[in-house]
UniProtKB/TrEMBL annotation:
Residues 1-24 form the signal peptide. It comes from Priestia taiwanensis. This is Lipoprotein. Keywords: Signal. The keyword Signal applies.
């Protein structure tokens, strides 16, 4: 039994490391709708190229989320974005702020209210697609 202890420790360590290094689900598609001056959503724009999806995914990973918050916003969002992963979807309402940050409201408890401090490049990606 003593000889098996190092083997079990090694197996446990490998399992722990593999669990900690697993990536989240990759994005497969992003649908973007800009809010028009009338307050209605514009036409859907679908993003599916890997380079742009990677940039959007990177920005979403940098959002600082607060769980369980139900804020009310003074104006309609600038963008409605639906993100499709391999096994799930998430929807976000996005407000771009004059100071270069962005405020996001998500449709889950874990991602209900968030801020992205440096959203200038994220805004460019969203508006150019």
């Amino acid at each position: 039994m003593r000889k098996l202890r190092p083997l079990f420790s090694l197996i446990f360590l490998c399992l722990l490391l593999s669990a900690c290094t697993q990536k989240s689900e990759p994005l497969t598609k992003v649908t973007i709708q800009l809010t028009e001056a009338t307050g209605k959503y514009g036409a859907e724009k679908v993003v599916s190229d890997d380079s742009t999806l990677s940039k959007i995914e990177h920005a979403l990973h940098n959002v600082k989320w607060e769980k369980g918050v139900q804020p009310s916003m003074a104006r309609k969002e600038d963008v409605f974005m639906k993100v499709t992963y391999e096994k799930r979807e998430a929807a976000y309402m996005i407000w771009f702020n004059p100071n270069g940050s962005a405020t996001l409201l998500g449709d889950t408890n874990d991602e209900s209210y968030g801020t992205l401090e440096d959203a200038v490049s994220f805004k460019e990606i969203i508006l150019l697609n």
